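ARCHIVE CARD
Drawer: 12
Card no.: 0347
Subject: one protein chain, sequence and derived structure
Cross-reference: see card 0346
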Amino acid sequence: MKRLIGPLALSVILGIASHFAILNYAPSVIMDRAYTMLGERGTAVHAFNLAPRMTPQTQSVVRPSPDLAYSACRFDLSEAPNGVRVKMGSYDGYSSLSFFDAQTNNFRTIRGNGEARETRLLPANSAGNGAENGADVTRAPSQKGIILIRRLAPSDAEYAKVAEASAGDLCEAI
């Protein structure tokens, strides 16, 4: 019995260490992969790209909603020292503008409610409030991340409206 205590204790310690390593590092690996995949599919840094309508043939995520249209923008604040101007064009149906950091955390979501929405994305440690003339400011907890616009588009006709509305989307380095 005493001979089993050492290997058993080692197994428990390795199991606990593995558990915490996965919890700590998996989000960074997942977001890095998503950031890279978006780049490989033509989404430039600081530019929105409207994805094709979600079907089993076009989905790249395990379960994207087929009723939503997605536009993504990769941001890198090391390439935009003065921040990033982000605008979601107006859309009559449901729309939201969501910000994700390098750890996959959603750090801000702005609902569209039929109106265009705009914010200035700044590094967390930037000086001042960055607001000009009452402009909305969002602080990013990481240098890199993804900005996602979701709009309700359950049909081809609605997706065509989303494509029209997405012309008003903006993600640009200041």
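Annotation on reverse: The chain has two helices and nine strands. The chain has a mean pLDDT of 85.
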